[in-house]
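pls ignore typos typing on phone
glutamic acid + seq
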Amino acid sequence: MPATVRTRIAPSPTGAPHLGTAYMALFNLAFARKHGGQFILRIEDTDRQRSSKESEEAIFDALHWTGIEWDEGPDCGGEHGPYRQSERLDLYKQEINRLLEKGHAYRCFCTPERLNELRAKQMANKETPRYDGHCLSLSPEESAKRAKSEPFVVRMKIPESGECTFTDELRGDVSIDWTQIDHQVIRKTDGFPTYHLANVVDDHYMGISHVIRGEEWISSTPKHVLLYQYLEWEVPVFAHLPLLRNPDKSKLSKRKNPTGIFYFRDAGYLPEALINYLGMMGYTLPDQREIFSINELSESFDLKRISLGGPIFDLAKLKWLNGRYLREQLQPEEVVQRLQTWKANPNFLEKILPLALQRLETFSDFFPLAQFLFSDQPEYDLETLTGKLQSDQPAKLLKIAEWELEKASPWNRHTLSSIFQKIAETEEMKLKQLMPLFFVAMSGAPVSLPLFDALALLGPDLTRMRLRSALTILGESGNGLSKKGLKSLEKDYASRYGNRID
Ligand code: GLU
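k done
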């Protein structure tokens, strides 16, 4: 064990804070606490197009809500800062230059056209797409000269043959053939480093002793190990945690499960129950207890106890655990207080009031109207849902809305209104014909509070869940989309809406 244990999470501020981030944070924190070390939050925002300040703030808020605390980070500082990659560019530049000087990296001037052609050829020959080393033959003088006038990227050199073996704390030795590894770009044309370079440089300068992250990064680890060697730095200990899975064992995805941390807050879960449940993902405490806090998890935490079979994130089990927390872990007055903090507070009621006021005669009208903003899932029957729409039209519209709403940013009345306008226009429908379906799917009734404002309050995760359960209801009653129908809708959607489905 290194003298000082330092762990980290390094989320990219793109989109809504993900459950996987809380899961990784929890295990990194528990490990650091167990060994009297520090846990760091670093923001990996080198993807300038996709990163945003709102998303960064949301990561802080979401993690604070879960009760996970970090010792160093962009918001609280620390001795190894700055903790935002966009503020560390000089450091990356320095290390990229060092790699160039030592001959471990080279400039590549290949055009996107050449690279596309190469890729297509390799794919046609059933080879792993990989850079062919074309620019490797440039002399240092020629490379430096061309760099003055031509755009270029910097790639790291990768051995031609043999394999990279590294130790994973959970798996033992892992070997990957170098032929499987591409000559990774480490500096983009815009001068920014890529994830791989920045990640290694930061882990080194931030003194990270243990890199505990998701198993999707195993295939990148050889590049990282090589960078450590090239830069003559000590390689940290690696532990790749299993990915969370949907109950059908597929990788946890927002299409099948809520994956945003805020979903759990907004749907009325207790953060300590969520964290407790995440702590049970692939892990059991030595005494097998089911109810435990972050501190209790940390006290006996042992990486070796993690089991690699993909842990299933099952909402029904989490609900059961949450119920136990409400009954066994909190005093009634605490439950009342937490309920108030959740949504029974003046701030939230004040947001709803302007939407409901038009329709109020007495107070007793308020809660029935606003009910769907408090419930996990409104109830309705099939006929109310489909209304005047025919056959698979409701399912198609719900699916399109699901895809369109995935790109909704910022999540507010204006964005939502333009998305539904766009759907109406593209489908050649009047908004009036389109909206009853969504009113019912979201609120349970064909007429309700102004929908766009209400959805803005409901948030993207709860909205998505409701679309999904409406689709399930349609599917179960034989009004859903067949596999073929879905495939053709995907194609049709991509061309008519000009949107890619991730
Ligand atoms: N920025 C990466 C992510 O978003 C970090 C991966 C790592 O922990 O190395 O997951």
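The beta strands are 6-9, 38-41, 105-108, 153-156, 163-168, 172-177, 185-187, 210-214, 237-241. The mean pLDDT is 95. more later
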